[in-house]
Amino acid sequence: MTIKLDDPHGATPLDADEIASLIPGHITTQGELNEWEQLNIFQGEYWAYQQRTEILTEDFLCQLHKQMFGETWKWAGQFRKTDTNIGVDWFKIGVEVKNLLDDARYQIEHASYPPDEIAVRFHHRLVAIHLFPNGNGRHARLMADLLVKRLGQPRFTWGSRSLVHVGETRQQYIAALQAANKHDIRPLLAFARS
Ligand SMILES: Nc1ncnc2c1ncn2[C@@H]1O[C@H](COP(=O)(O)OP(=O)(O)OP(=O)(O)O)[C@@H](O)[C@H]1O
Question: Which GO terms describe its biological process (predicted)?
Answer without folding.
Answer: cell division
